[in-house]
């Protein structure tokens, strides 16, 4: 479904990704783990068009993404929930979700998507008319995911959904992510610093170190891998 | 007595024209968060477009010509906004400010250097008094009629902008203004949203230009200099970036201060050039959100009613 081949990305003269190869198949949950600065967010930002690879190819269902602006990539069914949530704090919860449904023209389909998101995250329905900025961190993360789901993407890119969130809500959010994958058939590429959590939810994983993929395997093998255990699972 | 009445009518018409300029500038700078410094250019485009039609279609009945020239003023300014907006709105912050400022100055300098038989060049041109067919004079009835028209225009512009901001495209604009990247990641085309706001704002500035030309009965390029842009900016900073009500109050404060100072002896009157930048500086230090911030008068009344006295 999603294929990255030999991708090099630079920030000015600094190379952030070195010949990255990665693929995600239809229906999978794939996780990308690694330390701060390993290039996890850079990878997602390259896929969604916020960064341009200098070399290499990014394709989604065989379509080349490298030349498309972010808003066109979303139209293909690939939705990115950015790090730090970035919800619109001065718009209400409902309006935030409406923004996510920008690509859904049919009002009936919009309504269905809204009901679906409220079914996944009932807290959002309770807070529908509140400004986004008044939500807790965990609720904002739910809103960011819900907002991305409004366009009914076939693939979801999630950047650190556990960041700065109360542990009890983290579990709830990860349960819902698994449910989105199971019930909606949405393919998921999950970037996480909390490797333990991510590896228990995903089917396959990549380990990224200083812009290079150093390991790639099924998550059950990665969980047993002594290298991974020592570096990421502590 | 009549002199006093004329003075106040003139003041109110001017407040109305600045309100139009301020609400449209505010849509672009306040709500859409773009640093636009060329609004005087769109104002001038509207004024000159209206003047051109009035001079060249003199056979039409006055009131019809008046209305047509205002429509043309809006259209020309909107097309100007579209032409400038599409390349410039990819720029951000200071770069956008410089590009739009350049546009505003180019409009003025181009007219200033055009031949005298084309819109008067640097000397300016008279605008035939087409409303005289209705009012017979340019005194009290003319000013009352203009005031009524300007008031209707202000009310219409405020209503349209208010409804736009509450609509889905308007919310989209606010989303883009707050976080362009996040909006783009949801499939929203940020440039399109911004160009839309820019064109709407330009059209209303053009309308203000047409009304101004007909009211003054003559325009020249220096009416549209950069100091006018500073005044518009002061109005929105004073009233509150992102507040429509703030524009009305701000326009009143700025225009009334200027015109009342103008009645004072010359030695005092010229001080407004010092006073305005000073107010601007003080506002930015002590109340950067302006008098209203992002709120509207209606929000405040609602909040005041809800809270127990």
Describe the model:
The complex is a heterodimer of chains A (about 230) and B (about 300). Chain A is α/β, with parallel strands linked by helices and about 230 residues long. Chain A has one domain (about 1-230): Rossmann fold (3-Layer(aba) Sandwich), CATH 3.40.50.300. Chain A is built from 10 helices and 10 strands. Chain A has helices at about 40-45, 70-75, 95-100, 105-120, 120-125, 135-150, 165-185, 195-200, 220-225, 225-234; strands at about 1-10, 15-25, 30-35, 55-60, 65, 80, 155-160, 185-190, 205-210, 210-220. A 6-stranded mixed sheet of chain A has the order 6-7-8-3-9-10, sandwiched between helices. In chain A, a hairpin with a 2-residue loop joins strand 4 (about 55-60) and strand 5 (about 65). Chain B is mostly helical and about 300 residues long. Chain B has one domain. In chain B, strands 1-2 form a two-stranded antiparallel ribbon. The longest helix of chain B is centred in the first third of the chain and has 30 residues, at about 1-30. Chain B is globular. The mean pLDDT of chain B is about 90. The chains are: A alpha/beta (about 230), B mainly alpha (about 300).
């Amino acid at each position: 479904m999603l294929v990255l081949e030999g991708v090099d990305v630079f920030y000015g003269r600094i190379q952030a990704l070195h010949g990255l190869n990665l693929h995600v198949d239809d229906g999978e949950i794939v996780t990308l783990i690694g330390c701060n600065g390993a290039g996890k967010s850079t990878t997602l930002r390259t896929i969604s068009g916020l960064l341009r690879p200098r070399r290499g190819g990014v394709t989604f269902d065989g379509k080349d993404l490298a030349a498309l602006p972010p808003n066109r990539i979303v139209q293909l069914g690939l939705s990115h929930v950015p790090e730090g949530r970035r919800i619109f704090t001065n718009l209400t919860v409902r309006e935030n979700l409406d923004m996510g449904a920008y690509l859904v023209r049919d009002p009936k389909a919009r309504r269905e998507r809204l009901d679906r998101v409220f079914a996944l995250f009932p807290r959002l329905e309770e807070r529908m008319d509140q400004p986004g900025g008044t939500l807790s961190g965990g609720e904002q993360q739910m809103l960011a995911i819900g907002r991305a789901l409004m366009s009914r993407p076939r693939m979801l890119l999630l950047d650190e959904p556990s960041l700065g969130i109360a542990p009890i809500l983290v579990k709830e959010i990860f349960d819902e992510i698994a449910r989105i994958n199971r019930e909606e058939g949405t393919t998921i590429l999950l970037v996480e610093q909390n490797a333990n959590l991510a590896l228990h939810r995903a089917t396959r994983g990549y380990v990224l170190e200083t812009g290079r993929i150093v390991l790639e395997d099924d998550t059950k093998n990665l969980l047993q891998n002594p290298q991974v255990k020592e570096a990421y699972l502590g | 007595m009549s002199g006093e009445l004329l003075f106040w009518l003139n003041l109110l018409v001017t407040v109305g024209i600045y309100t139009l300029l301020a609400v449209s500038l505010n849509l672009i700078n306040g709500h859409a968060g773009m640093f636009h410094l060329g609004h005087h250019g769109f104002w001038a485009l509207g004024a000159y477009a209206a003047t051109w039609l009035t001079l060249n279609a003199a056979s039409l009945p006055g009131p019809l010509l008046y209305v047509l020239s205002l429509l043309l003023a809006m259209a020309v300014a909107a097309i100007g906004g579209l032409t400038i907006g599409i390349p410039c709105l990819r720029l951000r912050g200071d770069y956008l400010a410089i590009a739009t400022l350049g546009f505003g100055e180019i409009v003025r300098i181009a007219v200033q250097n055009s031949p005298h038989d084309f819109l008067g060049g640097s000397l300016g041109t008279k605008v035939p008094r087409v409303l005289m067919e209705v009012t017979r004079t340019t005194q009290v009835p003319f000013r009352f009629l203009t005031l009524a028209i300007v008031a209707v225009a202000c009310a219409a512009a405020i209503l349209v902008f208010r409804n736009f901001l509450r609509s889905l495209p308007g919310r989209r604009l606010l989303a883009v203004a707050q976080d362009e990247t996040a909006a783009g990641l949801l499939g929203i085309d940020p440039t399109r949203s911004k160009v839309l706001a820019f064109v709407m704002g330009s059209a209303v500035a053009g309308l203000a230009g047409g009304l101004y030309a007909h009211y003054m009965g003559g325009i020249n390029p220096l009416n549209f200099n950069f100091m006018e842009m500073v005044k518009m900016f002061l109005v929105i900073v004073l009233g509150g970036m992102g507040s429509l009500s703030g524009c009305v109050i701000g326009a009143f404060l700025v225009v009334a201060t200027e015109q009342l100072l103008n009645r004072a002896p010359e030695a005092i009157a010229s001080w407004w050039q010092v006073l305005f930048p000073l107010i601007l500086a003080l506002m930015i230090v002590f109340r950067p959100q302006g008098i209203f911030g992002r709120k509207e008068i209606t929000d405040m009344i609602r909040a005041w009613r809800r809270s127990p006295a």
